[in-house]
Write a structure and sequence with these properties.
Layout (H helix, E strand, L loop, with lengths): L2 E5 L10 H9 L2 E8 L1 H6 L2 H17 L5 E4 L2 H11 L4 E5 L4 H15 L4 E5 L21 H11 L36 H14 L4 H4 L12 H6 L4 H6 L5 H22 L21 H11 L6 H13 L4 H14 L4 H11 L5 H12 L14 H8 L4 H6 L32 H16 L1
Parallel strand pairs: 1-2, 1-4, 2-3, 4-5
């Protein structure tokens, strides 16, 4: 009898899991394991961790309680487990993020020293990072040509779950209780992911292009947490979409996810530094007043209703509508003149779908330090954006109850109301027009 190990990470599902299928084919018995790496709780917040634990419980239930849970450094835990169960092959889905690549290289080296091997199979992406290059063999830095290559490459078709896998027993810890999170999270796990995508495809997918920027309608797929933890693979979503223009637009959003992963794969230093080196010289505000403005932004107390609604949604749901993410990011960088890394770290700590590539390069795109071909001089006007994408104030009223009774004409500019700013709300902390001019001045200094 032979035993293999399946090390679950960003692939917390049974269906369409090539690494799991490889483990089942390689051994008569399979030990399914997850390692609770301290790096996770040090990096991510309670919403992220609570969702992870829920996904692990769902995965454990789907394999009849056989999921093995270990805690500590994977460099130690994985070789120890493999030795305990007499396994020589350990399978995992390949991780392309900077920390994950370093960790897996160290685990592989530790296993080799014990006569074992780490088999890295497939990826969490429709098209794995590094798979697409330009004709001159260099990586893409602009999305549109990447998208054309991505579409030509194709994502492949999803595969089934393994048939009657034989789960082997091993000593296990229990999944920890959820950390306290003062808000609501999506239902965790593979089954919830499949229900969510099925409902969205049936009701909203074909109209995605028309309503995806409307935060009040909540018409987006809400699949980002499930994709982050691998409760579903993008192949499974793409395979179920129609050929409508709305579905095509959604496909391009999946491609954006792959694009950012590819950019970070080729430029790991961009996790903390601007992709465009000259932007490192951009002047940013620091000190007590900068900290005060950051606190107002992070708690949804800027006096700009759409910005505040977005930041309160982040605290209340560990999630923010994508259009609103861009608006609040632009406000922090270009109205408050704070460094984009402060916002990226705040999002990383509070988003349930926090992902190194998408989070980092989403922020860099807005800040004008990354892949955006129209960089720093794109400055989102929080009032104009609110009037365009939340014209009736549905989203703002949902998250800023202080404005629930204000007249529609003043919902996005409460300081203009004849009765003044409603009790409990705040005056704008900056003047957007003035700060826009200042942002452009700083940009011109860097680019001159």
């Amino acid at each position: 009898m032979s035993t293999s190990v399946m090390w679950f990470r960003r692939d917390l599902r049974l269906a369409d899991n090539p690494a799991l299928n490889a483990a089942v084919q390689a051994g008569d018995d399979v030990v399914p394991v997850v390692v609770l790496d301290p790096h996770l709780s040090e990096t991510y917040g309670p919403g992220w961790m609570a969702f992870l634990y829920g996904c692990l419980r769902d995965l454990d239930e789907s394999m009849d309680g056989r999921l093995v849970v270990r805690s500590g450094s994977p460099v130690r835990a994985i070789p120890e487990l493999a030795k305990e169960v007499d396994a020589t092959k350990i399978f995992c889905t390949e991780d392309f993020m900077p920390y994950g690549r370093r960790r897996d290289d160290e685990v592989a080296q530790a296993l080799v020293q014990n006569g074992m091997v780490l088999e890295r199979v497939d990826s969490p992406y429709a098209v794995a990072p590094g798979s697409i290059l330009k004709t001159n063999a260099t990586p893409y830095r602009v999305f549109t040509p990447y998208l054309r290559a991505w579409e030509s490459h194709g994502a492949g078709l999803p595969g089934p779950a393994p048939t009657d896998p034989q789960w082997a027993k091993a000593e296990s810890e229990t999944v920890p209780p959820d950390p306290a999170f003062d808000g609501s999270l999506p239902a965790p796990g593979e089954r919830a992911a499949l229900r969510q995508v099925a409902g969205w495809v049936d009701s909203d997918a074909d109209d995605y292009g028309a309503h995806r920027n409307d935060p009040g309608s909540d018409a987006t797929s809400r699949m980002s947490p499930y994709l982050r933890f691998g409760c579903i693979h993008p192949r499974q979503i793409l395979d179920g979409l129609s050929s409508s223009s709305g579905a095509q637009k959604y496909r391009s959003e999946v491609a954006w996810r792959d694009f950012y992963a590819d950019v970070l794969f080729h430029n790991p230093e961009s996790l903390e530094r601007p992709l465009q080196p000259q932007m490192s010289n951009m002047a940013v505000d620091e000190g007590v007043d900068a900290d005060r403005r950051f606190d107002a932004w992070s708690q949804g107390r800027t006096g700009y209703p759409l910005v505040d609604a977005g930041m309160r949604q982040l605290l209340g749901q560990a999630w923010v509508h994508n259009r609103v993410r861009m608006i609040v990011a632009s406000f922090l960088v270009k109205d408050l003149h704070l460094d984009w890394t402060r916002g990226a770290r705040w999002f990383e700590k509070h988003l349930v779908d926090a992902d190194p590539a998408s989070n980092t390069h989403g922020w860099q795109w807005v800040a004008g330090t990354g892949t955006d071909p129209s960089p720093y001089y794109r400055i989102f006007n929080p009032v104009t954006q609110a009037k365009k994408f939340d014209p009736d104030g549905v989203y703002v009223r949902r998250w800023v109850p202080e404005l629930s009774e204000i007249a529609d004409g003043f919902i996005h500019e409460p300081w203009k109301s004849p009765n003044g700013v409603p009790t409990g709300y705040v005056e704008p902390i900056v003047d957007h027009a003035r700060e826009r001019t200042e942002a452009l001045r700083r940009y011109s200094e860097v680019r001159s």
